[in-house]
Amino acid sequence: MTNxxxxxxxxxxxxxxxxxxxxxxxxxxxxxxxxxxxxxxxAALDRALPDGRMIAVDAPLTPQAVAALAVLNDPALAAARAxxxxxxxxxxxxxxxxxxxxxxxxGALLGGPGVAxxxxxxxxxxxxxxxxxxxxxxxxxxxxxxxxxxMLWQEFQVASQAETLASALWADRAGxAALDRARAALRAxxxxxxxxxxxGAVTLDQASAAEASLAGLxxxxxxLAQQDLTDRAALAALLxxxxxxxxxxxxxxxxxxxxxxxxxxxxxxxxxxxxxxYGYQAADADLRATILAQFPxxxxxxxxxxxxxxxxxxxxxxxxxxxxxxxxxxxVAVARATRRQLDAAFTAALAAAQGGALAARRALGVLDRQxxxxxxxxxxxxxxxxxxxxxxxxxxxDARVETDLIDQQALRRAELIAxxxxxxxxxxxxxxxxxxxxxxxxxxxxxx
Length: 448
Hints:
Elements: H1 2-22, H2 63-73, H3 75-95, E1 101-107, E2 118-126, H4 128-199, H5 204-207, H6 209-239, H7 271-292, E3 297-306, E4 312-321, H8 329-393, H9 399-434
Antiparallel strand pairs: 1-2, 2-3, 3-4
Helix pairs in contact: 2-4, 3-4, 4-6, 4-7, 4-9, 6-9, 7-8, 8-9
Protein backbone atom coordinates (compact mmCIF):
# COMPACT_ATOMS: atom_id res chain seq x y z
CA MET A 1 0.00 0.00 0.00
CA THR A 2 2.86 2.32 0.78
CA ASN A 3 4.31 1.71 -2.70
CA UNK A 4 0.95 2.50 -4.27
CA UNK A 5 0.67 5.77 -2.31
CA UNK A 6 4.20 6.63 -3.34
CA UNK A 7 3.30 6.10 -7.00
CA UNK A 8 0.21 8.30 -6.91
CA UNK A 9 1.64 10.97 -4.58
CA UNK A 10 2.70 13.34 -7.44
CA UNK A 11 -0.89 13.35 -8.70
CA UNK A 12 -2.64 13.93 -5.37
CA UNK A 13 -1.92 17.66 -4.97
CA UNK A 14 -2.90 18.70 -8.54
CA UNK A 15 -6.03 16.55 -8.32
CA UNK A 16 -7.06 18.09 -4.99
CA UNK A 17 -6.46 21.62 -6.30
CA UNK A 18 -8.53 20.90 -9.43
CA UNK A 19 -11.45 19.56 -7.40
CA UNK A 20 -11.44 22.59 -5.07
CA UNK A 21 -11.21 25.14 -7.89
CA UNK A 22 -14.02 23.44 -9.84
CA UNK A 23 -16.46 24.26 -7.04
CA UNK A 24 -15.35 27.85 -6.53
CA UNK A 25 -17.20 30.86 -7.88
CA UNK A 26 -15.48 33.66 -9.74
CA UNK A 27 -15.80 37.35 -8.90
CA UNK A 28 -16.78 40.05 -11.33
CA UNK A 29 -17.29 43.68 -10.36
CA UNK A 30 -20.74 45.21 -10.96
CA UNK A 31 -20.59 48.96 -10.28
CA UNK A 32 -23.75 50.93 -9.52
CA UNK A 33 -25.35 53.05 -12.22
CA UNK A 34 -25.31 56.61 -10.88
CA UNK A 35 -27.24 58.32 -13.70
CA UNK A 36 -30.80 59.46 -12.71
CA UNK A 37 -33.16 56.68 -13.89
CA UNK A 38 -36.42 58.61 -14.46
CA UNK A 39 -37.57 58.74 -18.10
CA UNK A 40 -38.52 61.98 -19.82
CA UNK A 41 -41.38 60.63 -21.95
CA UNK A 42 -43.98 57.87 -21.87
CA ALA A 43 -42.61 56.50 -25.15
CA ALA A 44 -39.33 55.66 -23.38
CA LEU A 45 -41.07 53.33 -20.92
CA ASP A 46 -41.34 49.56 -21.15
CA ARG A 47 -44.71 49.14 -22.88
CA ALA A 48 -44.68 45.44 -23.85
CA LEU A 49 -47.46 43.40 -22.27
CA PRO A 50 -46.96 39.68 -21.48
CA ASP A 51 -49.21 38.70 -24.43
CA GLY A 52 -46.99 40.61 -26.86
CA ARG A 53 -49.23 43.66 -27.33
CA MET A 54 -47.84 47.17 -26.88
CA ILE A 55 -49.48 49.91 -24.83
CA ALA A 56 -50.11 52.88 -27.13
CA VAL A 57 -49.12 56.12 -25.41
CA ASP A 58 -49.87 58.45 -28.32
CA ALA A 59 -53.61 58.28 -27.54
CA PRO A 60 -55.45 59.11 -24.30
CA LEU A 61 -54.73 56.41 -21.72
CA THR A 62 -57.42 54.58 -19.81
CA PRO A 63 -56.86 54.01 -16.08
CA GLN A 64 -56.32 50.33 -16.85
CA ALA A 65 -53.55 51.17 -19.36
CA VAL A 66 -51.92 53.49 -16.84
CA ALA A 67 -52.02 50.68 -14.26
CA ALA A 68 -50.31 48.31 -16.70
CA LEU A 69 -47.59 50.89 -17.39
CA ALA A 70 -47.02 51.33 -13.66
CA VAL A 71 -46.62 47.58 -13.09
CA LEU A 72 -44.10 47.40 -15.93
CA ASN A 73 -42.05 50.44 -14.90
CA ASP A 74 -42.43 51.21 -11.17
CA PRO A 75 -38.88 51.38 -9.71
CA ALA A 76 -40.00 49.89 -6.39
CA LEU A 77 -41.43 46.87 -8.19
CA ALA A 78 -38.17 46.41 -10.05
CA ALA A 79 -36.38 46.23 -6.70
CA ALA A 80 -38.95 43.71 -5.41
CA ARG A 81 -38.43 41.49 -8.45
CA ALA A 82 -34.68 41.57 -7.86
CA UNK A 83 -35.29 40.21 -4.34
CA UNK A 84 -36.84 37.09 -5.87
CA UNK A 85 -33.38 36.13 -7.09
CA UNK A 86 -32.24 36.01 -3.46
CA UNK A 87 -35.01 33.54 -2.61
CA UNK A 88 -34.14 31.34 -5.59
CA UNK A 89 -30.52 31.33 -4.42
CA UNK A 90 -31.67 30.29 -0.94
CA UNK A 91 -33.54 27.31 -2.40
CA UNK A 92 -30.36 26.32 -4.22
CA UNK A 93 -28.30 26.73 -1.04
CA UNK A 94 -30.75 24.68 1.03
CA UNK A 95 -30.38 21.74 -1.35
CA UNK A 96 -26.61 21.58 -1.08
CA UNK A 97 -25.07 18.96 1.20
CA UNK A 98 -22.03 19.77 3.34
CA UNK A 99 -18.64 19.26 1.75
CA UNK A 100 -16.56 16.37 3.08
CA UNK A 101 -13.76 17.25 5.44
CA UNK A 102 -10.33 15.89 4.57
CA UNK A 103 -7.48 15.73 7.09
CA UNK A 104 -3.95 14.45 6.73
CA UNK A 105 -0.85 14.10 8.89
CA UNK A 106 2.82 13.29 8.49
CA GLY A 107 5.25 12.35 11.23
CA ALA A 108 8.95 12.40 10.43
CA LEU A 109 11.02 9.61 11.92
CA LEU A 110 13.63 11.19 14.18
CA GLY A 111 14.80 8.14 16.08
CA GLY A 112 13.83 4.83 17.65
CA PRO A 113 13.20 1.40 16.20
CA GLY A 114 10.91 2.64 13.41
CA VAL A 115 11.92 2.26 9.80
CA ALA A 116 9.70 4.90 8.07
CA UNK A 117 7.82 8.12 8.81
CA UNK A 118 4.17 7.83 9.85
CA UNK A 119 1.35 8.89 7.50
CA UNK A 120 -2.31 9.41 8.48
CA UNK A 121 -5.37 10.66 6.64
CA UNK A 122 -9.15 10.77 7.01
CA UNK A 123 -12.25 11.95 5.15
CA UNK A 124 -15.38 12.88 7.13
CA UNK A 125 -18.93 13.44 5.94
CA UNK A 126 -21.73 15.02 8.03
CA UNK A 127 -24.65 12.59 7.81
CA UNK A 128 -27.05 14.67 9.93
CA UNK A 129 -27.36 17.31 7.22
CA UNK A 130 -28.72 14.66 4.87
CA UNK A 131 -31.47 13.82 7.36
CA UNK A 132 -32.75 17.41 7.58
CA UNK A 133 -32.13 18.31 3.92
CA UNK A 134 -35.66 17.52 2.72
CA UNK A 135 -37.30 19.69 5.37
CA UNK A 136 -34.88 22.54 4.78
CA UNK A 137 -35.54 22.47 1.02
CA UNK A 138 -39.31 22.50 1.61
CA UNK A 139 -38.94 25.50 3.91
CA UNK A 140 -36.82 27.37 1.36
CA UNK A 141 -39.27 26.63 -1.45
CA UNK A 142 -42.17 27.81 0.71
CA UNK A 143 -40.34 31.06 1.44
CA UNK A 144 -39.73 31.48 -2.28
CA UNK A 145 -43.47 31.06 -2.83
CA UNK A 146 -44.09 33.59 -0.07
CA UNK A 147 -41.81 36.09 -1.80
CA UNK A 148 -43.49 35.56 -5.17
CA UNK A 149 -46.96 36.01 -3.66
CA UNK A 150 -45.84 39.12 -1.76
CA MET A 151 -44.46 40.59 -4.98
CA LEU A 152 -47.71 39.83 -6.80
CA TRP A 153 -49.62 41.63 -4.03
CA GLN A 154 -47.27 44.59 -4.40
CA GLU A 155 -47.93 44.60 -8.16
CA PHE A 156 -51.67 44.47 -7.52
CA GLN A 157 -51.45 47.41 -5.13
CA VAL A 158 -49.32 49.45 -7.53
CA ALA A 159 -51.85 48.81 -10.30
CA SER A 160 -54.69 49.82 -7.97
CA GLN A 161 -52.87 52.98 -6.90
CA ALA A 162 -52.05 53.95 -10.49
CA GLU A 163 -55.64 53.34 -11.62
CA THR A 164 -56.96 55.43 -8.72
CA LEU A 165 -54.52 58.27 -9.45
CA ALA A 166 -55.43 58.24 -13.15
CA SER A 167 -59.12 58.50 -12.26
CA ALA A 168 -58.39 61.24 -9.73
CA LEU A 169 -56.28 63.18 -12.23
CA TRP A 170 -59.06 63.04 -14.82
CA ALA A 171 -61.52 64.22 -12.15
CA ASP A 172 -59.18 67.08 -11.20
CA ARG A 173 -59.05 68.24 -14.80
CA ALA A 174 -62.81 67.88 -15.27
CA GLY A 175 -63.40 69.87 -12.09
CA UNK A 176 -61.02 72.59 -13.25
CA ALA A 177 -62.81 72.76 -16.60
CA ALA A 178 -66.22 73.13 -14.88
CA LEU A 179 -64.89 75.87 -12.62
CA ASP A 180 -63.30 77.65 -15.58
CA ARG A 181 -66.64 77.68 -17.42
CA ALA A 182 -68.34 79.17 -14.36
CA ARG A 183 -65.56 81.72 -13.94
CA ALA A 184 -65.91 82.77 -17.59
CA ALA A 185 -69.66 83.26 -17.11
CA LEU A 186 -69.10 85.28 -13.95
CA ARG A 187 -66.44 87.42 -15.61
CA ALA A 188 -68.81 88.17 -18.49
CA UNK A 189 -71.54 89.03 -16.00
CA UNK A 190 -69.16 91.25 -14.06
CA UNK A 191 -68.18 93.17 -17.17
CA UNK A 192 -71.84 93.66 -18.06
CA UNK A 193 -72.56 94.84 -14.52
CA UNK A 194 -69.72 97.35 -14.68
CA UNK A 195 -71.15 98.77 -17.90
CA UNK A 196 -74.55 99.06 -16.23
CA UNK A 197 -72.99 100.86 -13.25
CA UNK A 198 -71.28 103.28 -15.63
CA UNK A 199 -74.61 103.90 -17.31
CA GLY A 200 -76.32 104.41 -13.96
CA ALA A 201 -78.67 101.48 -14.51
CA VAL A 202 -77.68 99.61 -11.30
CA THR A 203 -75.93 100.50 -8.10
CA LEU A 204 -72.39 99.40 -7.25
CA ASP A 205 -73.50 96.96 -4.51
CA GLN A 206 -75.81 95.19 -6.97
CA ALA A 207 -72.93 94.76 -9.45
CA SER A 208 -70.44 93.42 -6.89
CA ALA A 209 -72.08 90.00 -6.51
CA ALA A 210 -70.27 88.54 -9.52
CA GLU A 211 -66.89 89.71 -8.23
CA ALA A 212 -67.50 88.13 -4.81
CA SER A 213 -68.56 84.79 -6.34
CA LEU A 214 -65.61 84.90 -8.72
CA ALA A 215 -63.21 85.30 -5.78
CA GLY A 216 -64.74 82.26 -4.09
CA LEU A 217 -64.44 80.15 -7.26
CA UNK A 218 -60.84 81.29 -7.69
CA UNK A 219 -59.99 79.99 -4.23
CA UNK A 220 -61.70 76.67 -4.99
CA UNK A 221 -59.87 76.42 -8.30
CA UNK A 222 -56.49 77.12 -6.68
CA UNK A 223 -57.04 74.23 -4.26
CA LEU A 224 -58.06 71.88 -7.06
CA ALA A 225 -55.08 72.94 -9.19
CA GLN A 226 -52.76 72.12 -6.29
CA GLN A 227 -54.39 68.70 -5.96
CA ASP A 228 -53.90 68.18 -9.70
CA LEU A 229 -50.16 68.83 -9.31
CA THR A 230 -49.95 66.43 -6.36
CA ASP A 231 -51.78 63.63 -8.20
CA ARG A 232 -49.67 64.17 -11.33
CA ALA A 233 -46.41 63.91 -9.34
CA ALA A 234 -47.58 60.75 -7.56
CA LEU A 235 -48.58 59.10 -10.83
CA ALA A 236 -45.30 60.09 -12.49
CA ALA A 237 -43.38 58.48 -9.60
CA LEU A 238 -45.24 55.20 -10.15
CA LEU A 239 -44.55 55.29 -13.87
CA UNK A 240 -40.86 56.11 -13.40
CA UNK A 241 -41.00 59.40 -15.34
CA UNK A 242 -40.17 62.98 -14.41
CA UNK A 243 -43.12 64.93 -12.91
CA UNK A 244 -43.58 67.30 -15.86
CA UNK A 245 -44.25 64.55 -18.42
CA UNK A 246 -47.59 65.11 -20.17
CA UNK A 247 -50.05 62.28 -19.51
CA UNK A 248 -53.19 62.33 -21.65
CA UNK A 249 -56.07 60.51 -19.98
CA UNK A 250 -59.31 59.05 -21.27
CA UNK A 251 -62.56 59.29 -19.35
CA UNK A 252 -62.44 56.61 -16.62
CA UNK A 253 -64.75 53.64 -17.01
CA UNK A 254 -64.50 51.57 -13.82
CA UNK A 255 -66.97 48.68 -13.91
CA UNK A 256 -68.87 47.44 -10.91
CA UNK A 257 -67.32 44.54 -9.03
CA UNK A 258 -69.35 41.33 -8.92
CA UNK A 259 -68.67 40.23 -5.34
CA UNK A 260 -70.57 36.93 -5.42
CA UNK A 261 -68.38 34.20 -3.94
CA UNK A 262 -65.25 36.35 -3.79
CA UNK A 263 -65.35 36.92 -0.02
CA UNK A 264 -65.57 33.19 0.69
CA UNK A 265 -62.46 32.48 -1.42
CA UNK A 266 -60.28 35.33 -0.17
CA UNK A 267 -57.65 33.00 1.29
CA UNK A 268 -57.22 31.30 -2.10
CA UNK A 269 -57.07 34.50 -4.17
CA UNK A 270 -55.52 37.47 -2.39
CA UNK A 271 -51.74 37.31 -2.82
CA UNK A 272 -50.96 38.71 0.64
CA UNK A 273 -53.00 35.93 2.26
CA UNK A 274 -51.37 33.34 0.02
CA UNK A 275 -47.99 34.73 1.08
CA UNK A 276 -48.96 34.21 4.72
CA UNK A 277 -49.97 30.64 3.94
CA TYR A 278 -46.59 30.01 2.35
CA GLY A 279 -44.96 31.57 5.41
CA TYR A 280 -46.88 29.17 7.62
CA GLN A 281 -45.82 26.28 5.39
CA ALA A 282 -42.18 27.35 5.76
CA ALA A 283 -42.52 27.54 9.54
CA ASP A 284 -44.04 24.06 9.55
CA ALA A 285 -41.08 22.73 7.56
CA ASP A 286 -38.69 24.52 9.94
CA LEU A 287 -40.34 22.75 12.87
CA ARG A 288 -39.97 19.42 11.06
CA ALA A 289 -36.26 20.11 10.49
CA THR A 290 -35.63 21.04 14.12
CA ILE A 291 -37.39 17.86 15.33
CA LEU A 292 -35.29 15.75 12.97
CA ALA A 293 -32.18 17.48 14.32
CA GLN A 294 -33.05 16.16 17.81
CA PHE A 295 -32.04 12.65 16.94
CA PRO A 296 -28.44 11.49 17.48
CA UNK A 297 -26.37 13.37 14.92
CA UNK A 298 -24.00 11.19 12.95
CA UNK A 299 -20.69 11.98 11.29
CA UNK A 300 -18.98 9.20 9.32
CA UNK A 301 -15.22 9.17 8.81
CA UNK A 302 -12.92 6.89 6.85
CA UNK A 303 -9.40 6.84 8.31
CA UNK A 304 -6.21 5.34 6.94
CA UNK A 305 -2.46 5.53 7.32
CA UNK A 306 0.73 3.73 8.23
CA UNK A 307 2.89 3.91 11.34
CA UNK A 308 6.67 4.03 11.63
CA UNK A 309 6.89 0.26 11.33
CA UNK A 310 5.04 0.49 7.99
CA UNK A 311 1.93 -1.20 9.40
CA UNK A 312 -0.95 0.18 7.27
CA UNK A 313 -4.53 0.45 8.59
CA UNK A 314 -7.85 1.72 7.22
CA UNK A 315 -11.35 1.77 8.63
CA UNK A 316 -14.47 3.80 9.41
CA UNK A 317 -15.15 6.00 12.44
CA UNK A 318 -18.61 7.08 13.59
CA UNK A 319 -19.17 10.06 15.87
CA UNK A 320 -22.48 10.55 17.65
CA UNK A 321 -24.04 13.55 19.38
CA UNK A 322 -26.17 12.29 22.28
CA UNK A 323 -29.29 14.50 22.95
CA UNK A 324 -28.90 14.42 26.73
CA UNK A 325 -28.75 18.04 27.90
CA UNK A 326 -29.69 20.24 24.95
CA UNK A 327 -31.25 17.92 22.43
CA UNK A 328 -32.22 20.90 20.22
CA UNK A 329 -35.24 21.37 22.49
CA UNK A 330 -34.79 25.14 22.56
CA UNK A 331 -34.94 25.41 18.78
CA VAL A 332 -37.99 23.13 18.71
CA ALA A 333 -39.77 25.37 21.22
CA VAL A 334 -38.98 28.47 19.14
CA ALA A 335 -40.17 26.76 15.94
CA ARG A 336 -43.45 25.68 17.56
CA ALA A 337 -44.09 29.19 18.90
CA THR A 338 -43.30 30.70 15.50
CA ARG A 339 -45.79 28.40 13.80
CA ARG A 340 -48.49 29.32 16.34
CA GLN A 341 -47.76 33.03 15.84
CA LEU A 342 -48.05 32.72 12.04
CA ASP A 343 -51.31 30.81 12.45
CA ALA A 344 -52.74 33.68 14.51
CA ALA A 345 -51.35 36.27 12.07
CA PHE A 346 -53.04 34.53 9.14
CA THR A 347 -56.38 34.39 10.96
CA ALA A 348 -56.14 38.09 11.84
CA ALA A 349 -55.24 39.05 8.26
CA LEU A 350 -58.10 36.99 6.86
CA ALA A 351 -60.55 38.62 9.27
CA ALA A 352 -59.27 42.09 8.32
CA ALA A 353 -59.57 41.27 4.62
CA GLN A 354 -63.12 40.02 5.04
CA GLY A 355 -64.17 43.02 7.13
CA GLY A 356 -62.48 45.49 4.77
CA ALA A 357 -64.17 44.02 1.70
CA LEU A 358 -67.63 44.03 3.31
CA ALA A 359 -67.17 47.60 4.57
CA ALA A 360 -66.00 48.80 1.15
CA ARG A 361 -69.01 47.20 -0.51
CA ARG A 362 -71.35 48.90 1.96
CA ALA A 363 -69.63 52.27 1.48
CA LEU A 364 -70.06 51.97 -2.30
CA GLY A 365 -73.79 51.51 -1.79
CA VAL A 366 -73.93 54.78 0.17
CA LEU A 367 -71.92 56.60 -2.50
CA ASP A 368 -74.23 55.34 -5.26
CA ARG A 369 -77.24 56.79 -3.46
CA GLN A 370 -75.43 60.07 -2.86
CA UNK A 371 -74.54 60.28 -6.55
CA UNK A 372 -78.16 59.87 -7.62
CA UNK A 373 -79.12 62.76 -5.35
CA UNK A 374 -76.22 64.83 -6.71
CA UNK A 375 -77.34 64.19 -10.30
CA UNK A 376 -80.79 65.51 -9.43
CA UNK A 377 -79.22 68.64 -7.91
CA UNK A 378 -77.11 69.20 -11.04
CA UNK A 379 -80.15 68.90 -13.31
CA UNK A 380 -82.07 71.37 -11.15
CA UNK A 381 -79.12 73.80 -11.11
CA UNK A 382 -78.70 73.58 -14.90
CA UNK A 383 -82.41 74.18 -15.40
CA UNK A 384 -82.43 77.16 -13.04
CA UNK A 385 -79.56 78.78 -14.95
CA UNK A 386 -81.28 78.21 -18.29
CA UNK A 387 -84.63 79.52 -17.03
CA UNK A 388 -83.09 82.62 -15.40
CA UNK A 389 -80.97 83.60 -18.40
CA UNK A 390 -83.82 85.28 -20.31
CA UNK A 391 -85.35 87.15 -17.36
CA UNK A 392 -81.89 88.37 -16.32
CA UNK A 393 -81.20 89.79 -19.78
CA UNK A 394 -84.65 91.37 -19.74
CA UNK A 395 -83.88 92.98 -16.39
CA UNK A 396 -86.59 91.08 -14.55
CA UNK A 397 -84.13 89.60 -12.00
CA ASP A 398 -81.07 91.29 -10.57
CA ALA A 399 -77.42 90.28 -10.95
CA ARG A 400 -77.19 88.81 -7.47
CA VAL A 401 -79.78 86.11 -8.25
CA GLU A 402 -78.09 85.26 -11.56
CA THR A 403 -74.70 85.12 -9.84
CA ASP A 404 -75.96 82.79 -7.12
CA LEU A 405 -77.45 80.45 -9.73
CA ILE A 406 -74.18 80.26 -11.71
CA ASP A 407 -72.23 79.74 -8.48
CA GLN A 408 -74.55 76.94 -7.36
CA GLN A 409 -74.37 75.29 -10.77
CA ALA A 410 -70.56 75.19 -10.59
CA LEU A 411 -70.60 73.80 -7.05
CA ARG A 412 -73.18 71.12 -7.92
CA ARG A 413 -71.13 70.00 -10.95
CA ALA A 414 -67.94 69.88 -8.88
CA GLU A 415 -69.81 67.85 -6.26
CA LEU A 416 -70.96 65.33 -8.89
CA ILE A 417 -67.43 65.02 -10.34
CA ALA A 418 -66.03 64.42 -6.83
CA UNK A 419 -68.64 61.74 -6.15
CA UNK A 420 -67.86 60.05 -9.47
CA UNK A 421 -64.20 59.96 -8.43
CA UNK A 422 -65.04 58.56 -5.01
CA UNK A 423 -67.11 55.80 -6.61
CA UNK A 424 -64.31 54.99 -9.07
CA UNK A 425 -61.77 54.87 -6.24
CA UNK A 426 -64.15 52.75 -4.16
CA UNK A 427 -64.65 50.23 -6.95
CA UNK A 428 -60.91 49.98 -7.53
CA UNK A 429 -60.31 49.52 -3.80
CA UNK A 430 -63.03 46.86 -3.55
CA UNK A 431 -61.55 44.95 -6.49
CA UNK A 432 -58.16 45.06 -4.76
CA UNK A 433 -59.55 43.96 -1.40
CA UNK A 434 -61.31 41.02 -3.04
CA UNK A 435 -58.44 40.09 -5.35
CA UNK A 436 -60.92 40.33 -8.22
CA UNK A 437 -59.53 39.06 -11.51
CA UNK A 438 -56.91 36.89 -9.87
CA UNK A 439 -57.11 33.11 -10.13
CA UNK A 440 -57.87 30.80 -7.24
CA UNK A 441 -54.65 29.20 -6.01
CA UNK A 442 -54.52 25.89 -4.16
CA UNK A 443 -51.44 25.28 -2.06
CA UNK A 444 -50.60 22.87 0.70
CA UNK A 445 -49.84 24.11 4.16
CA UNK A 446 -52.95 26.18 4.89
CA UNK A 447 -53.05 27.63 8.39
CA UNK A 448 -54.57 25.28 10.90
